[in-house]
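Table S2 (continued). Query chain:
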Amino acid sequence: MGYFSALDVSSSGLAVQRARMDLISQNIANVNTTKTEDGTPYRRQALLIGTDNNSFASQLMTAQSKNAASKAKVVGVYEDQSDLQRVYDPNHPDADEEGYVTMPNVNIVTEMVDMISATRSYEANITAMDASKTMAMKAIGIGQ
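Corresponding output:
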């Protein structure tokens, strides 16, 4: 794997973790959104993360070659289909006849844990980029 391949892998990881943090922030911002544009409560969003080589055969061929760098990428965004919460609040404007409000399936604790995980992964990618840069600078210094 070349120097620039290592930077490419780390930069793709940074982009994925940034997208993940953006989506988590969106989930937290909509924790109390009971009506979206289509009239339903907000559903938690999550990322599908993959690589640029998705098949086993392509992964194996990449690993066997000298350029064994698979970059991460966002494959898509999907809605979490877990059950929505029903909360008794007869004074809420979106309450049904029985006084229950259907709330989003966003759990703040889960989102905060995911945010910490994404932040740590982002930091790990930055550390890997810094290590690659330091190794390249040392290699350049060897020839002098």
